[in-house]
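PROTEIN DATA CARD
Card holder: Gustatory receptor
Chain length: 404
Origin: Nephila pilipes
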Amino acid sequence: MKFPVVPLNKKKGIRVIFIQNEKEKLDVQFLKSFSPIISLYFAIGIVINVPESYHSSRVYHHFGKFIKYACPLLSVFTLFSQLLWLFEFPEKKIEVPFLFVFILQNSAYFTVYRSQHLIEMILKRLSQISKSLKYGTDYKKRKLIARFYCMLLYGLIVVYVISYFYSGQRRVVKEYLKNSFFFKKFLQIPENYAMLYRDASVCCYSFGNSLAITSTTACYTFLCVQTQALFTHMAKKIRDLREGDNFYPLFDAYNELANVVSLMDDVFSFSALVLMLNSMIGLFRVMYSLVFMQNICIENDFYFCFVGLYYSSVLLSIILSASETVQAGKKVKELIVSLPGIFPSRYQELKMLIAKQNIKREIALTLWKTYAIDRSLLVSALGTFVTYGLLFATLGNVQNQEKN
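Structure generated from the sequence above:
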């Protein structure tokens, strides 16, 4: 079945797919499997209007209005707080990564916010392709996995914030704020209120920033999971083809799925880069804290473990899901290109069809259109961690020897 799609319209580098026939049946179960992720997006002001995914009730309408005004206010509050702590605290090496990650993540958030209608299109296109290929899977199970995945990632941040209140670092900050020039001498605010402001800023930063990171990571990961599953299902169908079978539906489906991958890259390539950078920065900060802040409290090791697990999960999710999707797409492309040799009697027909639909075009998911995501990226990241880990460990030993 050929999908009714008008030519791709290019606007500011984004390739947009317009659906002509909105009445075409969608795979509702697939759309429902994304409801946990869509709910997370809704909580940060990104509305994905996909049928059967969430209820447009009056409560959601009023909550959406509240989120519309609350998100910018929280962002301004968090940015102001991070700038304040950067100038207030003497340990700049800890506060600078926080500020840098916040600015990066907000830029990625605005990119996704402007592309929310394109995410809706991607979901609908994947739904229609699933329906046309008669791809069946346990979407209820996938929905549970998506919910568990989101809860696990966000749960790590919740535990991180709770452990922060019992950490040695918080006690050090509390002691510092007792003699703070800005709070005690300039604003003349009691130390308890200054510490309350510090705790509120940490909570807003942790919960707000991680909500944006978790929702985008989950959306990107599970879009890749569905795309990879469709490529794998398509490969099986191609292997089962016979001489007299109709090749056109599979060619059309592959062409549409390749367009979806290209659109995913247009929408999420910058966000994927930001998630990668934030994860690397977060992990380096954990490494730095464990090496150079051991004198604060043994609880610091426990305190930073949750951040390390969180950013490791984000990093692995992005690299593994994207690389496996690209590999699955390349395998299908190789199978289609080999069809003229498998069916010599239809050699010319298949050759013309492959050339006409541009089957040989590259399938790739990238980091901001500059670096292709593949399995080797994981090895490169691990190599970087090992290199800098040895460097940090050496510096830590030198520092301890100088103190002794």
